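In this supplementary section we document a worked example of the pipeline. Step one takes a protein sequence of length 363 as its only input; no multiple sequence alignment statistics are reported here. Step two produces a three-dimensional model, which step three serialises into structure tokens for compact storage. The input and output of this example are shown verbatim.
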Amino acid sequence: MHVVLAGGGTAGHIEPALALADALRRQDPTVGITALGTERGLETRLVPERGYELALIPAVPLPRRPTPELITVPGRLRGTIKAAEQILERTKADCVVGFGGYVALPGYLAAKRLGVPIVIHEANARPGLANKIGSRYAARVAVSTPDSKLRDARYIGIPLRRSIATLDRAAVRPQARAAFGLDPNLPTLLVSGGSQGARHLNEVIERVAPYLQQAGIQILHAVGPKNELPQVHQMPGMPPYIPVPYVDRMDLAYAAADMMLCRAGAMTVAELSAVGLPAAYVPLPIGNGEQRLNAQPVVKAGGGLLVDDAELTPEWIQGNVLPVLADPHRLYEMSRAASEFGRRDADDLLVGMVYEAIASRHR
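The serialised model returned by step three reads:
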């Protein structure tokens, strides 16, 4: 069996694809896996690092929404679709699994031409253009939110790295707090604006940090590798405030924390829900509003708070985040609500859908 994965560009597309690849290999170590990618995406580093074959096709960026530019896409895609077809023929692909983005659409159209079954996974609450088009031809469609608009979609969550999907936060907490130099017993706020950081989150947390420390809260703050680390003057006897450029072991960061302040990317929401970590979600104020839609279901279930970027202030954190961190019972209830909403088995469920799609071809 050979499966071709189409989902390059950003980590939000690549990480679920690699989690599926790992799950396919766990079930059948002989399965062949090839990831489609372009020269400019993160996949050029992430896919080989995980030991999978990467096959490059030309990049054809897609407009975010229907525009006059959309008319030119088929012509520009022609060469890219041909390149994808050659990869599917070379690998004798049994299935194409797409995760959206501009690598996915050529993969879908090539698979349609060759009669190769298509499985689609949509991570965001608001589907992208590639998956909207691809879903018309797909044998199976998987989504990360229960109220997706894609037709005949099955709600499974997002395939996650095993280090996250299998994380027992309580069991790992002592080791995790020691690794970051945190106090083993104090309530802990984790702050991160994603892999690149978020300047507004950084500025607000720097201003409110002394107040939180005085209230007995310690802070682990991933500021982003391109942002300046704040100057911290640690007062004797005060809970620690630990800024770091980047966290490469998010499983340990999640285990160390009692609550998180973060953006609401689909992967972040899925990971926090799966491990049962309550969060104050601050959706990115640009784009098509998908981050707010990503966070709303878990917030509605009681597993988090939601605040607009413009309303995130030190005063908001004092009035909304601090009362949660200072109340062990409320933390427990929010953690339980998040974990009940979260899905840890999306990778295995998606493997099942791949096998279903392949079987449907031979009926």
